[in-house]
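Subject: Sanity check before I submit

Could someone independently write out the structure tokens for this chain? I want to compare against mine line by line before I put it in a report. The sequence has 272 residues.
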Amino acid sequence: MANEQSDLAKGWVALGDPRRDHYRLSDSAVDLSRPSNAPAIASLRAEPQNILVDLNTSALLVVDMQNDFCSRGGWFDSLGAPVSGFTKLYEPIGRVTKALRACRVPIVWVNWGVRADKANLSPATRYAFNRVGCGVGLADPMNKRPPQAGNSPNGVLQKDAWGAAVVDELAAQPSDIFVDKHRISGFWDTPLDSILRNLRVKTLFFAGINADHCVLATLMDANFYGYDTILLEDCTATSSPDFCMQATLHNVRFCFGFTVQSDDLVKGVRPA
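---
Independent answer below. Compare away.
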């Protein structure tokens, strides 16, 4: 904040996020130097080793915590899937988002939000969601939606539909960032990487569902793009058998980064 006020006092105007990637403009010059903020270091207990992270270059990605997966009346619920198992994530994710917002760490919600016309969905992608060909698959209308769905589009995981929205219990904020995806990975054919680079992000925390599907695929792609990747263990779950969760934790720790408990993250970012 002091830097922002100093810039204004000198007649500079920030073009972009003053805390992240930006130019400074005046009547006579354009400053391309991108002054850096001092690191905001958090020390975290983690597996396989403890870590230090700079909150000024970090972001939280919350994957697929949306009505069609987590809520009564959603697509998973219509299939008889045990959506109640996902509600246990609301409390730890809520604490983490509150703690990180207080540190001005960006919160990014990455949800399925497919085109109504399915024009960019390959048969291989559609098959995983409709294995008999006559069921209800991606962007197909659902016959019944709960009253809170209102008059929004009712296609499964369809962009701007109730099923694609973040669950109310997690209280997403207008200042948060929202990214629609149409593949298992949140990076494939989406603006996610461009957004994170504009925010000068290097370290990513991950939460959401399913741990062994969309969370892991997005985390792996993040690692391949060069981001530091940290999975929040108790902010992540899956509807798959437990050995899938255990394999995910092993793979993250062994190949792609680190795992952290939400309590350790909240304690680590709390001002002294």
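---
OP: Matches mine. For the report I'm noting this point. The chain has nine helices and eleven strands.
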